[in-house]
C-alpha cells in the first residue's frame, strides 16, 4: 500500500509515517500543506491519502478542499481524513461525494493503533470508515427511531451498497436488478426512515449514516 500523508503538525506527521512504515506500509511522501500534497499525489499516485482537515494557510477547510480535488484528479484514490474534532459540514460534504474508499476519523483514534490500521485498510480496499463519534454527532438531530428494522432485506442490501459509495447503476449491477428497481427501493428506504425531500441534510448521506450507526451498534 502506497501512502501520502498531509498533516501540518510535524510531530503527528512523522509519528504517522513511523507507525505505518513499522507496519511495512510504503509512505511515499509526507507534506504539510495542500499544494505539495496535491503535487505528491500527482507524482506518486498513492493508493491512500491521509489528510488533516485543517491546514495552512487559514487552517479552516484546506485539507477537505485538497482531498476533494485529489479525488477529482484521481478517482481511484482512497482518502482517510483526520480531524481533531467533529466537523459536521465537512463530513457531510465528503460523504455526499460518494463514500467508497473514504474514511473520516478523529485524531485520537490514531493512538488506538489496531483500530486505526483496520480503518486504513478498510478504506484502501474501497470501504468506508467513519468514526463512531462522527456518526453520533451527525445523527444527533435525527428522530430517536433511527434503526433500520423497518427495512426489508432487499432494502438493506441496497443501503449497504450505497454505504460502499456505489451509485444506482452500480447497485443495480451488483444486485442483478434494473436501475428502476433500485430507484424504487431507495424511495422506500427514504420513506421508512422518515427522510422528507425538503430535509436540509442530503437524504442519501443521512441514510448511509444511519446504516453505519446501526452496523456499529451491532458489533
Account of the protein in words:
With 219 residues, the chain is an alpha/beta fold. It folds into two domains: 2-131, Rossmann fold, CATH 3.40.50; 153-218, Winged helix-like DNA-binding domain superfamily/Winged helix DNA-binding domain (Arc Repressor Mutant, subunit A). Helices cover 52% and strands 14% of the residues. It has helices spanning 10-22, 34-44, 62-73, 88-96, 113-124, 132-138, 153-163, 168-175, 179-192, 203-218; strands at 2-6, 26-31, 48-52, 78-83, 102-106, 128-130. The chain has a six-stranded parallel beta sheet, with helices on both faces. Helix 1 (10-22) links the parallel strand 1 (2-6) and strand 2 (26-31). Helix 2 (34-44) packs parallel to helix 3 (62-73), helix 7 (153-163) packs across helix 10 and helix 8 (168-175) packs across helix 9. Residues 2-122 form the Response regulatory domain.
Defining key terms:
219 residues, alpha/beta, Rossmann fold, Arc Repressor Mutant, subunit A, 2 domains, 6-stranded parallel beta sheet, 6 strands, 52% helix, 14% strand, DNA binding, DNA-binding
